[in-house]
Amino acid sequence: MSTTKYIFVTGGVSSSLGKGIIAASLAKLLQARGYKVTIQKLDPYINVDPGTLNPYEHGECYVTDDGAETDLDLGHYERFLNVSTSQANNVTTGKIYQSVIQKERRGEFLGKTVQVIPHITNEIKERVQILGKSGEFDIVITEIGGTVGDIESLPYIEAVRQLKWELGDDNALVIHLTLVPYLKAAGELKTKPTQHSVKTLMESGIRADILVCRTEHHLSDDLRRKLALFCNVQKEAVIESIDASTIYDVPNLMLEEGLDAIVLNKLNLSNTTSPNLDRWNQFLTRHKNPKSTVNIGLIGKYVELQDSYKSILESFIHAGAANEVKVNVISIHSEYINKDNIAEKFSKLNAVLVAPGFGERGIEGKVEAVRYAREQEIPFLGICLGMQMAVIEYARNVLGLKKANSTEMNADTPFPVIDLMEDQKSITNKGGTMRLGAWKCELQKDSLVDSVYGSTHIEERHRHRYEYNNTFRDQLEEAGMKSTGINQETNLVEIVEIPSHPWFVGVQYHPEYKSTVASPHPLFVAFVKAALDHSEK
Fold first, then answer.
1. What is the mean pLDDT of residues 316-337?
2. Which residues are 72's β-sheet partners?
3. Which residues are catalytic?
4. For a pLDDT cut of 90, what percent of the chain falls above it?
């Protein structure tokens, strides 16, 4: 008999209703009651992972400690739970089919015809249960990407149907997230889209145990009764999910609705301990009652889509609360920055962050942003490509190497201060081949980053192919750009800073991936504090 309980979160009517936030909020409440919980995401696209997807297509690519390139929802899971995820927490159709085809090539199916049922669905079921069978978790929440009725989601829905039947009602339940739209002309909420969505789910053999209804207006008692009757759920299992001012309100809203209590009752688990959300609510209080405001420029190439920099934006929320400061993030497209307009664009900024990215577009604008922040002594943080731009800018404008560049942008540059990593030169496949996951870094004693971290040993997550070229290290150091973080194993420069500047740091890694509500990232906390100091001057 299974000791791990499984919760499946499906969606209907519309995408982007917030399945990930509902899953993370429920997990937070269950964790706050003392249960060990993890969340996984099943993505229906055929890409093996989102690593090769343009940020405009799918938002940011989130990276785990073990080097998995995953859906951005895993960032929400980690930020809410303060627990690391792994390769096992994100499964795609591409991974499923790749695994089944490899098994078929090895002859593991003994001459059978390989089909969606049972071979694909068996593979999905195995992946769903990997985390449960590890013995680490009491409850595994699985979010199914897309909406019910999508062709690409059908194998996942069928796998859930089979698992629910195999595990039994005490060990598995389905939460269906749906939309109850408000028609302004009629002046009322309409339940019909939800009814159709639940009907589609039932046609696939699954009855929703709990209905979570996204809505702009409160659900009346009559409306809840109607939904319960037509959607075949208990009235107390109709949960309102009203629009919130911040995603961090959602756990409290779900607590008020009793979502965690009904889940525990249905799974036959103890419901006697109230969730301890004291620390969470302390964060919310600080977030909602800032004592000051700072303006931080986010200089990037994908600023039209906020999800492209999701983890950075959330890190600013965590760091803002830690400093009791409201962080106004002002997105500035690097493609439209030049010497003539930069003073105007940056006139109200208290700090500048140059964001990660790939490719040549918008690069000169990023270099110009670094120059202005350095010369005007505005607090600066460069992440990944942003750190590389800082090195290029310093080489050009301080060392006088006017044609300094990265070989990613100009393969023939005479001064390749940023170059392709040695172990990347023989690689031809793009997917999953970068320097990925957590790597150790040794910090220079008495450096700015040493004081920020309070330790000389750190471990941070990476996602890059190009690196600081050590050939130019002595020149850069002598000119005042210090290498204050080194990976001892590869001798790779991970951090640069300019001690003569009030606050100037570039990091090759992605600190935003490790910032959570319970543990705001120290680099973001210090950067926001530097912005606050700048604003007070």
1. 95
2. none
3. 384, 510, 512
4. 71
